[in-house]
């Protein structure tokens, strides 16, 4: 069985990923491994951040003695078992703001204060509303974009002897899957579903926000759903 270690502690995100990928995989999260490394997402692109998270965690799994077998539940010599790290980075791109907040979506408000870490959702949404002001609806076009990175945790016989070379090999073997969902930004938050900017985002073809739409509908439309659909197809090959 394929084991996916999802590089997050966000329960909502994990639930969304599991709902989209479905049964047939063994799922783990950062809550299932002891003291995982904290990865600073300082790349300038979604692809760069997703790849960095996946590669750092995969390398750490190998360097933690015996952890790969313990975490993955792999049986010695069971070639059908595979372990991957799945990491994603996603955000909102608003055309009227030149593509912002983009890779800074989670800490959009904090950019103004210099505070470390992510900003509260209410502050991020308030900043977005303030900057858009009375921009007319037809000019409030935007999209959610997601990049998912899938990095294999290589068995010992396939690993380069040098840790540096191994990290390079992991990056070379990382596959990226992209998804986007077009829409527009409303004039006020609506709905209590989802998280982040969901109550502000109205997907194309709908009048309700992601915060108002049923979770099953969102999981068919969302940027993450589309990226994960490509990933699922790859793993099923």
Structure description:
- It is globular and about 55 Å long.
- β1 (2-6), α1 and β2 (25-29) form a beta-alpha-beta unit.
- It has seven helices and six strands, in the order βαβααβαβαββαα.
- It is of the alpha/beta class.
- α2 (46-63) packs across α5.
- Mean pLDDT is 87; it is low at 74-80.
- It has one domain: Maf protein (Alpha-Beta Complex).
- The two termini are 14 Å apart.
- Strands 2-1-3-4-5-6 form a six-stranded mixed β-sheet, sandwiched between helices.
Q: How are the elements arranged and paired?
A:
Blueprint: E1 2-6, H1 11-21, E2 25-29, H2 46-63, H3 67-72, E3 82-94, H4 121-132, E4 141-152, H5 163-173, E5 175-185, E6 201-203, H6 215-221, H7 223-236
Parallel strand pairs: 1-2, 1-3
Antiparallel strand pairs: 3-4, 4-5, 5-6
Sheet-strand content, in percent, reads: 15-25%
Question: Helicity, in percent?
Answer: 25-40%
Could you tell me the radius of gyration in angstroms?
A: 19 Å
Structural class: alpha/beta
CATH fold name: Maf protein
One letter per element, helices H and strands E, the order comes to: EHEHHEHEHEEHH
Cα-to-Cα separation, first versus last residue: 14 Å
Structural shape? globular
- Average residue pLDDT: 87
Spatial order of the strands forming the largest sheet: 2-1-3-4-5-6
């Amino acid at each position: 069985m394929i084991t996916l270690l999802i590089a997050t502690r966000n329960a909502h995100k994990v639930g969304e990923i599991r709902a989209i990928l479905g049964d047939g995989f063994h799922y783990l999260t950062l809550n299932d491994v002891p003291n995982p490394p904290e990865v600073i997402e300082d790349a300038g692109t979604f692809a760069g951040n997703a790849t960095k998270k996946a590669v750092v965690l995969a390398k750490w799994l190998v360097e933690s003695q015996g952890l790969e077998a313990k975490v993955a539940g792999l049986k010695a010599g069971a070639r059908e078992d595979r372990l991957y790290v799945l990491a994603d980075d996603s955000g909102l791109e608003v055309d009227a703001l030149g593509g912002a907040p983009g890779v800074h979506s989670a800490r959009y408000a904090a950019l103004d204060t210099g505070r470390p870490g992510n900003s509260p959702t209410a502050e991020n949404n308030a900043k977005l509303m303030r900057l858009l002001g009375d921009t007319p609806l037809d000019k409030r076009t935007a999209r959610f974009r997601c990049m998912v990175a899938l990095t294999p945790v290589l068995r010992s016989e396939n690993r380069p002897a040098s840790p540096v070379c191994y990290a390079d090999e992991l990056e070379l073997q990382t596959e990226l899957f992209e998804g986007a969902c077009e829409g527009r930004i409303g004039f006020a938050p609506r709905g209590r579903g989802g998280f982040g900017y969901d109550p502000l985002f109205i997907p194309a073809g709908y009048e309700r926000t992601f915060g108002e739409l049923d979770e099953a509908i969102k999981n068919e439309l969302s940027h993450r759903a589309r990226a994960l659909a490509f990933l699922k197809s790859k793993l099923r090959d």
